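User: Can you help me understand a structure? I only have the sequence.
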Amino acid sequence: MTTRHCTTRALAALLVAALVVLSAGMPVRAEPPDDRILPVEQYTSEKARQLATTHARALRELNAVVYHCLPWLEVQKHSIGFFRPKGASQDDRYLSLRVYVEQDPSPQFARLTAEERAASMFSRYVGALLRRMARDPALLADGRLDGFTVIVEWLKQLPQSAGERPVHETMAVFVRKSVAVDYLAGKVAAGDLAGWARVLLWDGETPLGQLKLTAWDDDFVSTYKIANYQPEPGVTCR
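Assistant: Let's start by predicting it. Here is the structure, written out as tokens:
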């Protein structure tokens, strides 16, 4: 087995160990909160309002699939919508999804470098979420859509003493639509997707700048199951 494969397996094992296992008595999840989607009237351009209006159903379905099928991911208020990517000089509009991964940090995971933690989270979540964001053919075919943004936040470490705040890390991944289309068609592998995407990382509120990551295919999202959790009747997770 190669060193890279060993490293990949080790990182995957650390992430599995770090994930919070939700209790068997978790409350029934009825419908996802509507406020996860940015309201049309809050957009700042006509292009964005048109996208949000035309693809309102696709946004609701994205909200629902994360809520029902990926219950360890928290989508906060107004975290789904057609936002301008950071640094854009014109009115580019990317379908954006921001999630918080509910996991406990392990000491081993915290000892990894920032790039290694980001690579692990990229491999685990970016491709899986991108596929769910682009399920609607009409959305993908819309010429007004310029790309996709996946923002993943996680707990890096717990407070070390009383009065300290927990430290979070946040990764923002910006993918042009042409790259996303090739990835979804199987023409671009996960490692190439990481190379073509623009990846920014924050340690708490401190920006760490743009990263070049080594990513790999990780099937965690499609295989992980929370004990005793079942989606509501009529919900299909794939």
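Now, to help you interpret it: Residues 3-19+56-223 form one domain. The CA atoms of residues 135 and 211 lie 28 Å apart. Let me know which part you'd like to focus on.
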